[in-house]
Design brief:
Layout: H1 2-52, E1 71-72, E2 85-91, H2 98-109, E3 116-121, E4 153-158, E5 161-167, H3 169-180
Parallel strand pairs: 1-3, 2-3
Antiparallel strand pairs: 2-4, 4-5
Helix pairs in contact: 2-3
Length: 181
């Protein structure tokens, strides 16, 4: 009988040990799966960050001072800018003749004592209501609801009133060249 009892106790001990081993194997599997998931997540994040440029491993970051030379505004802002004196240049940016005018305005803007030059793209939807089209332009406009221009036009504004109005590529180019001297 003692032999049967010892055999039975050994069986019970085996079951107890196997149950404990099963729990520890299960726990280690859960931990291993969690670690694999976390490592995979961070690997995907870092690869994505490197590809998108969020993390730069090989390039040195250089600080570049940003200088805004051209200020684009909407035509509706013509008479509301904070400066006492400034220019507003209305034109179609996609026109091939626009580049020389932009260059002339940039040259003027590099002068030490210059007034701000704002640019209005007459092809943008918000500016279309200020395009004269077939109608004559209004060179005497003093309020925004009176403004009708043909591209290109430059207006000099002083104290929120138009004091100078020039139309045409050649005329504006001459005017900006004279201002740059």
């Amino acid at each position: 009988m003692k032999a049967k009892q010892i055999k039975k106790e050994n069986k019970n001990k085996k079951k107890l040990v196997m149950g404990t081993e099963t729990k520890s194997v299960e726990t280690s599997r859960v931990i291993l799966i969690s670690v694999v998931v976390l490592v995979t997540f961070f690997a995907v994040y870092f690869v994505t960050a490197i590809v998108t440029g969020e993390i730069k491993l090989w390039e040195k970051e250089t600080k570049v001072d940003t200088v805004i030379q051209n200020q684009e505004i909407l035509a509706g802002e013509t008479f509301v800018k904070s400066e006492k004196t400034y220019y507003v240049l209305y034109m179609n940016f996609t026109d091939l003749k626009a580049s020389p005018l932009i260059a002339a305005a940039d040259i003027y803007s590099k002068k030490t004592n210059h007034n701000m030059v704002y640019f209005v793209d007459m092809e943008k939807g918000f500016n279309l209501s200020y395009v004269a089209g077939e109608l004559p332009s209004n060179s005497a406009a003093q309020k925004i609801d009176e403004l009708k221009v043909k591209a290109p036009t430059i207006i000099k504004v002083e104290n929120k009133k138009a004091v100078s109005y020039i139309e045409g590529y050649e005329e504006i180019d001459k005017y900006l060249t004279e201002l740059s001297k």
